[in-house]
Amino acid sequence: MHPFHLFALQLTHHLPGTWKSIRRWYTRPADQSVDLWRIWTPPEARPALAGRPHAATLLGPDGLELYLVEHRQDRVLICPVIPYGIHEDITDRIPAPPAVAAPRDPARAAWRATDRVLPHYTAALATISGLDVRRASAPAALPAPAAGVFRTPAR
User: CA of 28: how far to CAs of 2, 53, 54, 63, 70, in Å?
Assistant: First the structure.
């Protein structure tokens, strides 16, 4: 297993609630585009996340979803993801929750995510539920995670 994917799996053990990690690896930058369009950032910021061969999607409680991507050798970016069924233009109506850079230490990265991303992300999701938002005609298809899915034990 690649060290980045091992880090993502270890991170799930430190986040609140039950999380699972889905490994992502891209042989071409175009393969990453499906995942990048769901990241809750302004569209002009998404190209900065492209071109990284290793990433991971963390699936958490209550539909929370985080996208991890390599940033530098010792850092990772933790990005909130637009929920399935919500059109990406929600980024025009609701400010994006912050994406943060975190060290590649699972405990410290979990603290960053728990302290700086998840509170804003859950507040934004609560705002969405109170609005009449445009729905996506179909959720973006993700590649089947077959051999890349690792589940964390329930706490």
Answer: 17, 8, 11, 28, 15
